[in-house]
Amino acid sequence: MKILVPVKRVVDFNVQIRVKGDGSGVDLARVKMSMNPFDEIAIEEALRLQEAGKATEVVLVSIGPAEAAETIRTGLSMGADRGILIRSEAPVEPLAVAKLLKAVVEEEGPGLIILGKQAIDDDSNQTGQMLAALLGWAQATFASKLEVDGAYFKVTREVDGGLQTVRLKGPAIVTTDLRLNEPRYATLPNIMKAKKKPIVERAADLYGVDLAPRLEVLRTTEPPGRKAGVKVKDVAELVSKLRNEAGVIR
Known about the structure:
alpha/beta, 6 helices, 27% strand, single chain
């Protein structure tokens, strides 16, 4: 079974985000970029399935500028077999990403697609669901456990109040939650091996997908600053402030 893992290049989660002065978006100049953390979890899960003999090949695909090849190379150094970069200099919204991925799926014929439940830059949480709809495949989102049972996949996912386990018939799409696993660090030998692994580049225009944005960003603002805390002398004063100032209790 071949596993396809889409990966996205995003602002590193350790970076303090700066909003542009005109509010049109986030300032990306000289900002450290890295792989979306949820996608790292997806790669780790695919590699574990491969090491368990459940998968024969792990293929990474990314949609973005030339620099996205670095993101793919990071995944290859973790242990993935090869990569596909679909070049697009302009941002691509989730629906267009899903349509491009559908074209890649039709070329590659994977039995399973694992991808992050969302990217930490736009937090859209849409691509996996849209791709499942376009392909007509079964899907399980927010996976915290994934098991392969013949032609079926058993996925445990967190829901309000507990855990839900679902069974999917492959081919299928699974989106990852934080609790699924802990991604491995790339070793130096694997980093060196990754330099020789193939990455095929293709222009997004070749797939005939309309990449025109459907969304218009009206304004981007920074979150309000946190107010300084106060000390209270006793429980009675705390209750009074919660009731009369914060309004969180009656």
